[in-house]
Each structure stands twice: as structure tokens, then as C-alpha cells.
Specification:
Order of helices and strands: EEEHHHEHEHHEHEHEEEHHHEEHEEH
CATH superfamily of the largest domain: Type I PLP-dependent aspartate aminotransferase-like (Major domain)
Strand order of the largest sheet: 4-10-9-8-7-5-6
Largest sheet: 7 strands, mixed
CATH topology of the largest domain: Aspartate Aminotransferase, domain 2
Number of domains: 2
Strand content: 5-15%
Helix content: 25-40%
CATH architecture of the largest domain: 3-Layer(aba) Sandwich
Radius of gyration: 22 Å
Length: about 475
């Protein structure tokens, strides 16, 4: 039986959501591997790992047993007043995977906290090393870094200033190197790098603390993959002016065929890499800001950095994170992400070729996206009142597919559908995902086209049974 729409007491998290957006939310009662089961008995293939988080799927015994064993041995102790072995073991493994220049990991309870902690650490380092004037941050529009007040202010979201602006310190925004509608990926990268230099000059190089960016985009940019020159030139610019480069890898870590997306180009490594989501894979709240041993030591030898939250480096969360890393490395899931990503991408491109709605297929590894367009010939954007991905998500439930959709910037930069299944997905399930997506799109297309005023025609060779 489904949950009551207006419970007399309590209620699920969506009691705070807009009433218009919660009518079709499924009530999940069980999960197994890459599938979730709702109270209507529908078996839903999780095509997005929740919000790109549940990288090991449901019910991984190794992780669950590691958490149970740790809880029995040591449930909790505060990182500011004690040490514990689970903290040391997780950070050791993270440093080994991240490689030189990222030997230290400050642990938090999630991604938003990790981004904030990274900026606080960099600010503390600037003050400790005689640069108290460095406090300004530059980020991309569009982009996404979290939901705390400070990370909301970093987000490339046109709606933030009106709602949250009075409570937050806004970052300086520069255009993201969006590739789809640009003359070329190189041109987009060049324009963004020019904007970065201009912003630094406008603010004053001595005042800029950090440039924060996603090396491969998430929901905010529809998995935008910039031209390789963008990260490399951003690294050069930041080095020239003594600005710290921060890579937000909360979504893209583990998924692109490398532990960090940054590792695809050793000449563009950041000063800080931020992880969360797939790090604990939904089994515990966990995030991390990775920095160099040298930076950590410079702070520790002077003012120190003792900012902490009660659950930072929680023993049970650390045990979960270490077990997740064991699963990922033992089963070579990072390497498999590259291989299975190609399989999925081939299927998505086949669907796109026949679809009136898909203007672009992009991404890397098991982090992919379909750009949705109102007119395929012109790459026309959807109207501000439209939300094509939400329509597709709703139809997906009827075809056994759980999709994630959250429209960004009222569609100003585009609309998209992300495909980021759990890393432990196999070949037959990849094919099943493609089949279910194809039937979902066929079912959703008439409704979406009708909302644009275009003739309703199905371009799919295969229609749902």
C-alpha cells in the first residue's frame, strides 16, 4: 500500500517538496543489486545509482559486514579528541589510489561538507602562510557543488542569488566550457579560460583563493566533457597566480575509467580533489577532501586546522568506505566502467540516431548523458515552462526504469537525461537498460513533442510492447 499523500504525522522527505512534483514518486520497499522494488511490485532498474551514488548497488555483503564488525569493535569516537585505525586505513587507501600530490584526506559526512571543508582548509593555509587577503572563489556557470549555504553560492545556478543570496557569499562565475552548442569543444575551452583570466584580473590575483570546477560535469551541465586543454590551461593559470585549483569529483570519481577523472591528464592535476557519493556508495554518509602532504604540513606546523563536524571520520563510515574501495579494486570496477561505458554509449547512440528528442550523446565511462532538444535540426532549447526529462522519468517507471531528473537553470543551458548505473552492472543488464530506455523514450516522445507544438510522430523503429 502506498504512503498517504498528506500523512497526519511525520511523513517522508517529500512532504516539503512542491506538491506538483511528488505525485508519481514510487515508494521503494526493497532492493537487490541494480534493482529496486516498489510497493506496487514493480522491479525498477536503477539507471542513475540514485543521484550517481549507489555505485555498488543494493545489499553488498562485504560492505555491510565490514560496517557491522566495526560497529561491534568501535561504534564512535570523536576525531578531534581521539584517533582510530579505521580512519588511518581509509585515508591510506585513498592516498594510494590518488597518487603523488594527494597524500592526505580530510574526511567529512558528505559532498557539500567536503567542498566547504576544502575551502576552509585552503583559507586556513592562506592565512597561515601570510596571504590573508586571499578569500575570493571562482566557479563555473552552470555547475554544481552542494546544498549548504556556501556551496549553494558556488553553484552555477541562476536562481540562487534571489533565494539564498542574502545568506551566502557568492563566488565569481565564469561561463562553463559547454561543448554541445559551441562552435567547437576547443573554442568553448578557449572562451572559458579567457573568462577565467579576465575574472582574476577584475578581482585582483592576490585576492583569489581558489578556482572550483568539475573536471567532468554532473547534473548541472549534463555530463559536459570539456576539451582536454581546459583543465590543463586552468592548471597553468592557477599556478601562475598562486591560486588553488579544486576539482569537484563527487560525481565523476570512479566512473570515467580512472580513480579520479583528473588522472586522465597528469599535467592538469588539482591542488584539492573532493570525493563523496560513490566513496561510500550509499552505505554511509562520507566525503573527503584530498590534498598534498606538504599543504597539510604547512598548516599543521603553524595555525593548524581543527575544523570538524561530529561525524567526521566516523569509524563505521570509514569501514564502509574501505570496504567499498576493496570491492572496486578487487573487481576492477574502474577499468570495467570504461569498457561497459562504451557498450552503453553504443546503445545510447543507436537510440539517439532514431529519436526526434536527442541532440547529443556524451560522457565518459559509466557517466553518460543524453541532451534533449525541442528540434533536432536546430538543437533548439525547450521552453522555460517545459521539463522533458521529468516526463521521461515518469514514463520510465511504467517500463521498469528508475531515472533521475532535476532541471537546471530552467533549461537555459539545455535539458538532459543522465545515465550512470551502479559500477557493478554487467553486460546483459547494460543491454536491458538500453532496451527499457528505448521503450521509455518511445512512450514519452508524443507527450513531449505535443508540448512543443510539433507534429507527434514516433521516430523509433521499435515501439513498446
Amino acid at each position: 500500500m502506498g504512503l498517504l499523500p498528506f500523512p497526519p504525522l511525520g511523513g517522508t522527505q517529500d512532504v516539503f517538496f512542491p506538491r506538483s512534483s511528488v505525485g508519481d514518486l514510487p515508494t521503494i520497499v526493497a532492493g537487490e543489486g541494480v534493482y529496486l522494488v516498489d510497493d506496487r511490485g514493480r522491479r525498477l532498474l536503477d539507471a542513475c545509482s540514485g543521484p550517481f551514488l549507489a555505485s555498488l548497488g543494493q545489499g553488498n555483503e562485504r560492505v555491510l559486514q565490514a560496517m557491522l564488525a566495526q560497529g561491534r569493535r568501535l561504534t564512535y569516537t570523536y576525531s578531534r579528541t581521539t584517533r582510530h585505525a579505521a580512519n588511518a586505513e581509509l585515508t591510506r587507501r585513498l592516498a594510494m589510489l590518488a597518487g603523488p600530490g594527494l597524500e592526505r584526506a580530510h574526511l567529512t559526512s558528505g559532498g557539500s561538507e567536503a567542498v566547504e571543508m576544502a575551502l576552509k582548509l585552503l583559507r586556513a593555509h592562506a592565512v597561515a602562510t601570510g596571504h590573508p587577503e586571499r578569500h575570493r572563489v571562482i566557479s563555473l556557470m552552470p555547475g554544481y557543488h552542494g546544498a549548504t549555504l556556501q556551496t549553494l553560492a558556488l553553484n552555477g545556478d541562476v536562481g540562487v542569488p534571489a533565494l539564498w543570496g542574502p545568506l551566502a557569499v557568492e563566488s565569481e562565475k565564469i561561463p562553463a566550457p559547454l561543448t554541445f552548442r559551441a562552435p567547437s569543444a576547443q573554442a568553448a575551452a578557449d572562451a572559458s579560460c579567457a573568462a577565467l583570466e579576465a575574472a582574476i584580473a577584475r578581482i585582483g590575483p592576490e585576492q583569489v583563493l581558489a578556482f572550483v570546477m568539475e573536471p567532468v560535469g554532473g547534473q548541472a551541465s549534463g555530463v559536459n566533457v570539456p576539451h582536454p586543454s581546459f583543465a590543463r590551461r586552468a592548471r597553468q593559470i592557477c599556478t601562475r597566480y598562486g591560486i588553488r585549483l579544486v576539482f569537484d569529483e563527487i560525481v565523476c570519481a570512479f566512473r570515467t575509467g580512472r580513480f579520479l577523472a583528473a588522472q586522465h591528464d597528469p599535467e592538469a592535476m588539482p591542488d584539492v580533489a573532493v570525493l563523496a557519493k560513490g566513496l561510500a556508495a550509499g552505505y554511509a554518509p562520507l566525503g573527503a577532501a584530498l590534498v598534498s602532504a606538504a599543504l597539510a604540513e604547512e598548516v599543521a606546523a603553524t595555525t593548524g586546522f581543527t575544523v570538524s563536524h561530529s561525524y567526521d571520520a566516523s569509524p563505521i563510515a570509514c569501514a564502509a568506505g574501505a570496504a567499498v574501495l576493496d570491492e572496486i579494486t578487487e573487481h576492477r570496477l574502474i577499468d570495467r566502467a570504461a569498457v561497459l561505458g562504451e557498450r552503453l554509449r553504443n546503445g545510447l547512440e543507436r537510440i539517439a540516431a532514431a529519436s526526434a528528442l536527442i541532440g547529443d550523446v556524451r560522457g565518459r565511462g559509466l557517466l553518460l548523458a543524453l541532451e534533449l532538444v525541442a528540434d533536432k535540426q536546430t538543437s533548439q532549447l525547450f521552453a522555460e515552462h517545459a521539463d522533458p526529462a521529468a516526463v521521461i522519468r515518469r514514463h520510465g517507471l511504467d517500463h521498469g526504469l528508475l531515472l533521475y531528473s532535476r532541471r537546471q537553470n530552467r533549461g537555459r543551458y539545455g535539458d538532459w537525461l543522465l545515465i550512470a548505473p551502479p559500477l557493478m552492472i554487467d553486460e546483459p543488464t547494460c543491454d536491458e537498460l538500453i532496451d527499457r530506455l528505448e521503450t521509455t523514450l518511445a512512450a514519452a516522445t508524443p507527450e513531449i513533442l505535443a508540448s512543443t507544438g510539433r507534429p507527434v510522430t514516433l521516430d523509433f523503429a521499435a515501439t513498446p510492447e
